[in-house]
Design brief:
Strand order of the largest sheet: 1-2-5
Number of helices: 14
Distance between the termini: 71 Å
Helix content: 40-55%
Number of domains: 2
Strand content: 5-15%
CATH topology of the largest domain: hpI Integrase, Chain A
CATH class of the largest domain: Mainly Alpha
Structural class: mainly alpha
Length: about 300
């Protein structure tokens, strides 16, 4: 069996029926990026040297694509070993491509306030509001329904994603993503005042592309630094953490599976003024302690 034939069978049997369409599409792109001579090789003849050479060439120009190729092939070859199609995985001796993700740009709390003022004029205001104040992911906002709001709580249980050119409703990726968010009274009032109700029950029936274009228009109207839609979620998280919200609480709001992911997100966006007061308190204590020891050089070290 050729490597390309096996990867097609693996996709049809283990990926497409069990993974999100976006994940399957990502795997497809990764497989398509491998050189034809590698895909035409017999599966049992494939070795780490062939794979490493292909990854090295891709990494030199597109490090993120090389990392996705590595992850896809590693998963597929592990399954081939379990199916006893090969005795060992050719990925065992392959180095994972290095990739340093770009830091997501965020808005400050003041900039976020300006964003929401401008967003009120947008026909996508309800979804932009939920993303900027409650930290919803794009798919979660698109999948939010009026029926999911009970009292002052929003139940997040599904997402809408574009796959094969169509918008599809799918379950969330992890159990922690299924969560209930208490809607702030001001946010709830804005939602209830929204005059345009979708007959299908969505808070707003739109597409990812239209939502993104509406977001860019708001950024332009408010004359703010350009950030991605996902940057709204990061902006909200950074503002809440800087305001003193415990990281564990923030983890629950964002629906993160791991505490470390939330902590790293905050550390990634922390501004110098957020920890200035802490440094001032510490320096005040230690410098005051030095001052109390007197001015003589008693046991001190001159540097």
């Amino acid at each position: 069996m050729r490597t390309g034939e096996y990867l097609d069978l693996w996709m049809e049997t283990y990926v497409i029926p069990k993974r999100a369409p976006s994940t399957a599409a990502c795997y497809r792109r990764a497989i398509a990026a491998f050189p034809p001579q590698l895909l035409n090789m017999e599966l049992e003849q494939l070795n780490g040297l062939h794979i490493q050479a292909a990854l090295n060439r891709k990494e030199s120009k597109h490090p993120r694509a090389a990392q996705l190729m590595y992850a896809t092939l590693n998963c597929a070859m592990s399954r081939a070993v379990r199916l006893r199609l090969i005795r060992y995985s050719p990925m065992d001796g392959v180095d994972k491509p290095a990739h340093k993700p770009r830091k997501t740009a965020v808005l400050s709390a003041d900039e976020l306030a300006r964003y929401l003022v401008a967003a009120k004029s947008s026909d996508h205001y309800p979804l932009l509001l939920l993303m900027a104040t409650c930290g919803l992911r794009r798919g979660e906002a698109l999948g939010a329904t009026w029926a999911a709001i009970t009292g002052d709580e929003l139940h997040i249980t599904q997402q809408r994603q574009k796959a094969a050119g169509k918008l599809a409703t799918r379950p969330l990726k992890s159990e922690s993503s299924n969560r209930v968010i208490p809607l702030p009274s001001a946010v709830l009032a804005e939602l209830r005042a929204w005059p345009h109700r979708s007959l299908a029950g969505w808070i707003l029936d739109t597409t990812p592309d239209k939502l993104y274009k509406a977001h860019l228009k708001v950024i332009a109207w408010a004359q703010l630094p350009k950030i991605s839609l996902h940057g709204l979620r990061h902006s909200m998280a950074a503002a809440m953490a800087a305001d003193g919200t415990p990281i564990k609480i923030l983890q629950g709001i964002l629906g993160h599976s791991h505490y470390q992911l939330t902590a790293d997100l905050y550390a990634d966006h922390i501004r110098s003024d957020a920890y200035r007061a802490d440094l001032e308190r510490l320096s005040g204590r230690v410098l005051f302690g030095i001052g109390c020891q007197g001015t003589g050089n008693q046991g001190g070290v001159r540097v």
